[in-house]
Amino acid sequence: MAVSGIEVLVFDVLGTMVDEPGGLRGALREAVPGADEASRDRWLALWQEYVEREVRRVNARERPYADSGVLDREAAELVAGHAGLTDADTVARLADAGRRLEPWDDSAAGLARLAGRFPVLGLSNASRASLLRLDAYAGLRWHQALSAEDAGAYKPAPEVYRLALDAAGCPPERVLMVAAHAWDLRGAQGVGMRTAHVARPVGDPPRADDTFDLAVGGLDELAEELTRG
Questions:
Q1: What is the pLDDT of residues 116-126, one digit of tens each?
Q2: Cβ neighbours of residue 123 under 8 Å, at least 6 residues apart?
Q3: pTM beyond 0.90
Q4: Is-cis flag, bond preceding 156, omega within 30?
Q5: Which of 18, 36, 112, 153 sits CB 3.0–4.6 Å from 157 for a disulfide?
Q6: Nearest-angstrom CA–CA distance, 33 and 16
Q7: Other C-beta atoms within 10 Å of 65: how many?
Q8: Other CB atoms closer than 10 Å to residue 161's CB: what's the count?
């Protein structure tokens, strides 16, 4: 499955490089320590469903662009209402949970290994401010980190991937999008990028009709595929 002619690597961040659901679940455990696991699972689902719906509304132009920090704050307030949280500081810390997500075990080292061979870009739906703090927290070191905020839309809108192509400065077929989410890779394919699916516990697996250039079990395997020869 080796690919050739790649000049630049572009990585999704949320879910691909960091454990977003696990981080949100941990923040809920901290905010409501007496809650049982089933309740936290319901609140996590409520949070995720809210953000996903609002992202779709933004991309459909049913709502003006609001960055991820705004959506997370709205989701946190929604969950707080269901959980009976009334302390403003606790709700504010919950809303910032997306800035404190743990990296997968291979993320930092795998990224550093690949960065020694290719320019590496992060491309995230996280806001600029959230992405800055998340990268610092998780120890992710990019040559450049790009936020969907600069496109005024969210992946999988094509204008977000074009941010990476503009930064890469080379033809899209020489740019490899790496993500744990098949929907993200389909969006990248729509603008001509090459694609690599990396398996993560929280990712969106490929469908039978998906045709990605690579499918790997982690960043070490990705590095082996891209650096052989």
A1: 999 999 999 99
A2: 10, 11, 12, 13, 146, 148, 155, 160, 161, 163, 164, 177
A3: yes
A4: yes
A5: 153
A6: 28
A7: 14
A8: 27
